[in-house]
Each structure stands twice: as structure tokens, then as C-alpha cells.
Amino acid sequence: MTLRVRDHDQAVRKAMEVSSELDIYSIVRIQDRRDRTVAVTNAATDSVSSEFLSGAGVQVFTTDGLGGFACSDTVTPDSLAALTACAASLARASRGRGAEACMEIFKATALQCDMDRVVPAGFDQVKVELEEDAVLAVNRESTAVDPRLAARTFYRITDEQWRIARSDGTDVSFSMARAVVMNSVTARDGDRAATVNTSVSGEDASVLLSPHCREVLRKRTERAAGMALGLLTAARVRAGNYRIVLDYALAKGLAHEAFGHAAESDAMETSILGREGVFRAGERVASDIVTIVDGPIPRDYAYQPISANGIRRETVEIVRRGVLSQALSDVFSAARAGVGITGAGRAESYRHLPIPRMTNTRITVEDPLPIGKRFEDVTPEDVRDVLDSAGLLTSDP
Q: In whole angstroms, what is the distance from residue 193 CA to residue 231 CA?
């Protein structure tokens, strides 16, 4: 067992004992996170740093659904007992002050499980000197394409663990390992400059060290650098309406911003996908070939298997065949938004209350056109030929 958050059994038990004595319902969240970063600019190391974060937050509810919250960076039986009592005092003090009650938490189903994702090149398996050397090498490769290029390469590896315990007997622990290496490349010629970004992400240092990931990053960077260099002499695009072809990354990004955030149930009063605070399920928003999905994907950078409220995270079809279907919701805002609970609660840290947020949002399309190449090897000419062969360029070449 490598889940460090499992070492706090006594502290969790003490919090639950105090909760029972005070006749309140508690959610205990314990976080243990480690980050290491390396940043390089133009073949010189800017920084190598490590950051460690650990602590606990206790959210409580009175029998009539009023809530309170307290947190500390100390995780001991005494500290969690004090946090629980403090949060209970805050909850009771909110009575008569317009606080909004939540009774849905009392209906949540109890869950017990451990989900420890062990990765081969994780935080403790790779020496920082090796990581720094690799980041320097990636940075040098990024500027070798053309003397007009400057580059900044940034690498981060994260080992994050959570433990969520509730008064109903829920006790879950899970780990989230992730890593990313990013290149920011600037092309400059006279008074014109253009900057492009590219990255490779995953769950461990293989994003930086494996030959496959390095080759993917190299190809993406070369393509991006070529775009930056081309922009130095490119004509200005006139304002107007254009038919365009998006690559998957931009399409996914637009889906993330336009549909993912808009489907989060805590902001439905102001969301374009809400009407009078209720999710507009059943309304058509796209062609029937389009489905927009959000949910945890193992080995993905945004992987989260269980919500910060101790509820399994579901895969949600925000749009199903062009029609609004499901919202991203948590136990505290689902009922008000008129939707079911999907376990989408995410907490920024143990110091924060969870809110509904995305994990991995992506677009799926029925009957995609095969192209027969990896994304990094596809050229604009390849895309044009596929569209042409499918008859999609005849009306507007």
C-alpha cells in the first residue's frame, strides 16, 4: 500500500466520534500532494523546484442541512477534532442568517474503496538530475529548427492523493499521478513576433523520457514552430465569416469552454445552458452526429475517479446526438439545477469547498472519416484530400 493518506486512521476516527457527539454529519477531506518542476529558457535552466502540500478540511451539516467548514495543514486526531467542532459552530451560527440548507448529502450512498494508481516512472522513481537533463535537451531541440526561434520548456510531475470520509461510513482513498512537458516557442524577425505552444501530458515522467513521447513532442513542436515562422510574413486576415477546419485540440478546447463550463450545475442561474436556473435538457444544440462527453480516463492528465464528496465520478454525455442530455453536478447543486448527481465535485485543495468541474471533456463524432496517419503526421494537404474525397469541398472549395 502506497497511499500515504491511509496513515490517518486515528484522525479520521476522532473526527467521526466528535461528529456523533455533536449530532452533525461530517465530510473529512485529507489531501497529500507533491509537485516537482523544471523550467528552461534558451538552453539555460531557470528553476528546479519541489512543492509539498498536505492538510485536511472538514465540512459539516446540521440535522436541518446548514453547513460549516474549517481546515488546517495539521492532520492529527486533536486537529481534526478541533476542526469538526469549529465547523459545527459555524454551521449553527448560520441559522437565521439566510444560509442555504442542503439535505441531499444525507441521501448519498456510502462507499468504501482504495484506488491507488501506481505508475512506473512516478514522482519517486526518477531522479531530478535526469529530468533536468531531458528538459534541457528538449529545449535545445526546440530552437534548433531556425535561428529566429526562442523557446521556454516547462515540466511538472505531480503525485496527488486524497482521502474522503463521511459520517455515513464512506471512506475512500485515491491517487492521481500526472505529468506534463510544454514548449512555448517564439519566432521573431524585426518588429514582428509570434508565439505558439505545444505539449505532451500523461501520468508520469515518461512524457519527458520515453522515446515515443519525445518523438511526439518533437513533431508537435516542429509543426508549431513552422506555424510561428510562417506568421512572421503572413498577410493579415480580413474580418468576416469563414468556413474553417479545426484540429481536435482546438475543437476539444472549445467544447471545454462552451459546453463543459456551461454544464456545471453550480452556475446554472447564469449559464447559457440553463433557463431560470434549470439545465435545458432535451434542447437541440448541434448536429445529430455530435456527442460531447466528460468523464475520467485512466492515464489522462485530468483523471479523477472519485469526487471530493466521496461519490464515484460518472462519465456524462453533456450532448447526446446533438441534444443537451446531462449536466456536470455534485450533491450540493444538482437538485436546484434539476439534474441527477454525477459525482463531478472537485476541490482545488483541502482548503476549498468542492464545486462541479470537468475532468476530461471530448467530442465524439459518428462515422468519422479515416485518415490513416497519426495526428502529428497529418498535413493540411492530407485533410484537404480526405474532405475532397468525401465530397465536402464541392460547394465551397
A: 8
Taking residue 373's Cβ as centre, other Cβ atoms within 10 Å add up to: 10
Pairing of strands 290-294, 316-320: antiparallel
pTM over 0.85, yes/no: yes
Q: What is the pLDDT of residue 393?
A: 85
- Distance CA(59)–CA(192), nearest Å, equals 53
Phi, psi (degrees; rounded to nearest 5) at 355 = -140, 160
CB neighbour class for 246 (10 Å; exposed up to 12, middle 13-18, buried from 19): exposed
Q: Which residue, among 17, 35, 34, 16, has the nearest Cα to 26 in the 3D structure?
A: 16
> Are 326 and 351 within 8 A, CB to CB?
no
Asked whether 98 and 156 are in contact (CB, 8 A), the reply is no
How far apart CA 317 and CA 363 sit, in angstroms, is 10
Phi and psi for 381 in degrees, rounded to 5?
-65, -40
Closest to 155 in 3D by CA, of 136, 175, 127, 140: 136
- State the chain's mean pLDDT as an integer: 95
Q: Residue written as cell 462527453?
A: 293
Pull the grid cell for residue 268: 446554472
User: What is the pLDDT, as a whole number, of residue 397?
Assistant: 53
Look up residue 130 and give its three cell numbers: 535526469
Between strands 112-115 and 171-189, the pairing is: parallel
CB-count exposure of residue 282 (10 Å: 0-12, 13-18, 19+): exposed
Distance CA 387, CA 2 (A): 50
Tens digits of residue pLDDT in 70-83: 999 999 999 999 99
